[in-house]
């Protein structure tokens, strides 16, 4: 499998608190990787560092090598807009813009100077398994959609930009089981085109959808491997404790 996204010797501190400790990890093309570990271990911070979301925090100190294929994500001449176009992000709480469903997709296309028309918007909504449910309501405010629909809209907004990677930070944590399974189906379908990294606290979810699983603890990657190995044959005692719900 070809490596799409990687971090090597990544250290990140907020002021004097080191949150990521010498992390080296890579994510393969067309695979789903689950990032698991107790709250506060640094999963979101790791995900966000690929998108340079700490650029605006003057007290965040980051060093290490982060690459999207051969693109150095922290090189001075790489615009953050290009990175965020190529690496999409979906958050725990669906955050549609306070605009219509149509405009939620169109906005990102326009600011990235991509072709924007009804066909492109339809295609993105189809790809996110949402088109059939909203095709007669494209002018409706997105905030009127259900939670699960709003999250699929956020996924549509990300895929509309034709990214290579989609980072998902607990995308189903706020959703009911039916909406969750719908999004899991969608994620499995998206991996044919994209590299996907998903943070989840739902161990069944990781086992249902992830090819690989990475276990983090206190800012470090403690163990990584195929999801099957991590859940059925963990090598690290902490991994074993965590997946069995011990802490
Ligand atoms: P997780 O997603 O695994 O729950 P986070 O990456 O959100 O963990 O947080 C890791 C640690 O970094 C926590 O101790 C958290 O309080 C701290 N942290 C996260 N974001 C910031 C920030 N912007 N400023 C200061 N500390 C932060
Ligand atoms: Mg988090």
TrEMBL record:
EC number in record: 3.6.3.27
GO biological process per UniProt: phosphate ion transmembrane transport
InterPro entries noted in UniProt: AAA+_ATPase, ABC_transporter-like_ATP-bd, ABC_transporter-like_CS, P-loop_NTPase, PstB-like
GO MF annotations, alphabetized: ATP binding; ATP hydrolysis activity; phosphate transmembrane transporter activity
UniProt keyword Cell cycle present: no
Keywords tagged on the record: ATP-binding, Hydrolase, Nucleotide-binding, Phosphate transport, Transport
Keyword ATP-binding: yes
Cellular component GO terms held in the UniProt record: membrane
Enzyme class: hydrolase
Start and end residues of each ABC transporter domain: 5-243
Top-rank lineage group of the source organism: Bacteria
UniProt-listed Pfam families: ABC_tran
Name the UniProt record assigns to this protein: Phosphate ABC transporter ATP-binding protein
Origin species: Paenimyroides viscosum
């Amino acid at each position: 499998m070809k490596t799409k996204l990687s971090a090597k010797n990544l250290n990140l501190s907020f002021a004097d608190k080191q949150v990521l400790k010498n992390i080296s990890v890579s994510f393969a093309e067309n695979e789903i990787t689950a990032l698991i570990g107790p709250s506060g271990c640094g999963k979101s911070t790791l995900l966000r560092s690929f998108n340079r979301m700490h650029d605006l925090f003057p007290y965040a100190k980051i060093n290490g090598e982060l690459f999207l294929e051969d693109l150095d994500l922290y090189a001075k001449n790489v615009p953050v807009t290009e990175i965020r176009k190529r690496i999409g992000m979906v958050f725990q709480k669906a955050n549609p813009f306070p605009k219509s469903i149509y405009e939620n997709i169109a906005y990102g296309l326009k600011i990235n100077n991509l072709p924007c028309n009804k066909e492109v918007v339809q295609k993105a909504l189809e790809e996110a398994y949402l088109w059939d449910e909203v095709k007669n309501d494209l002018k409706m405010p997105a905030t009127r959609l259900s939670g699960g629909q709003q999250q699929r809209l956020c996924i549509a907004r990300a895929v509309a930009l034709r990214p290579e990677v989609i980072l998902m930070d607990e995308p189903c944590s706020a959703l009911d089981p039916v909406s969750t399974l719908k999004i899991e189906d969608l994620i499995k379908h998206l991996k044919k085109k994209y590299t996907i990294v998903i943070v989840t606290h739902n161990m069944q979810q990781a086992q249902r959808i992830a090819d690989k699983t990475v276990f983090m603890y206190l800012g470090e990657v403690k163990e990584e491997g195929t999801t099957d190995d991590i859940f059925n044959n963990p090598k690290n005692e902490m991994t074993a404790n965590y997946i069995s719900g011990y802490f």
